[in-house]
Amino acid sequence: MYKNTVVLLLLLLSAGNARAWFSEGHMMVAEIAWQSLTAASRARVSVLLRRNPDHDLWVRGVPADRRDEIAFVTAATWPDAIKGSEGHALEYTNDGERPRGPDAGRNTGYQDRLQHRYWHFVDTPFSTDGTALEPPATPNAETQIRTFEAAIASRDVGEDVKSYDLVWLEHLVGDVHQPLHAASRFSRSLRRGDRGGNAVMLCRRPCRNELHLFWDGIPGDSDDPREAIEAARKLARPDARAAAIGDEHVWIEESFAVAKRYAYEAPIGPGSGPYALDGRYENDARAQAMQRIALAGVRLANLINANLR
Hints:
Layout: H1 6-13, H2 23-36, H3 39-49, H4 55-59, H5 67-75, H6 78-81, E1 125-127, H7 141-153, H8 159-176, E2 184-186, H9 211-216, H10 225-232, H11 240-243, H12 248-263, H13 279-307
Parallel strand pairs: 1-2
Helix pairs in contact: 2-5, 2-8, 2-10, 2-13, 3-5, 7-8, 7-13, 8-13, 12-13
């Protein structure tokens, strides 16, 4: 049933910063959201998700009374799944890590067969040594969250597009709460930026163990939604005032601040490494990641409850 293994995703995606959290982290965000959705929202998202070409794969072998929840949780992984060659019904074209041309920001529903890897992040630049910065490319995660939020709220947008946008929103809200999907450090040794830590090594080449992938993997590496559901239910509820913030730009600013404070703290140095992480770093990173996941889940539910028509 669950074909999208973490190993496959690592092999396919380690060269770019086009994903955040492994499947388990994204599904944890979705489960937290599911628990905070109104009954009306649950019914509406369940109808929309049946339009996704992979819906039957998501619920195959699942008891009838759990299909809606499992579909919603698994849907959060779909924008990563379409970058692989297995685990989904249709083929999608890799159109690169940076947006190019008029199709990069289109919103046409499931007829769109581009992978849109550049929708998954906002490379907010910073430097600690005065290296010149490059602004983040557009469209990106922030522009697309705004676009999809408006679309699901509109009575003039068709069901196919709303279904597509809902799945992307499930994923992108999780993406922008991963700190290294909101930052790129520029330095004398990395003048084009480190692409959210993808260019910072944690072991010597040809090892592919990168800082970005370390943060992706903090929540866990299971691709079984039932395991993600169990893990999500163990997380502490986020601060209510923080969870009530509905501005995607603020979410990204928060992640940017966490990246600078925690992702790039010692023993991560100023260049490309390799660096060896210690227990203090790993404990701090886990605490921050779990807080971000909990916030993402409640904020996703708030977005859906307030906007989905």
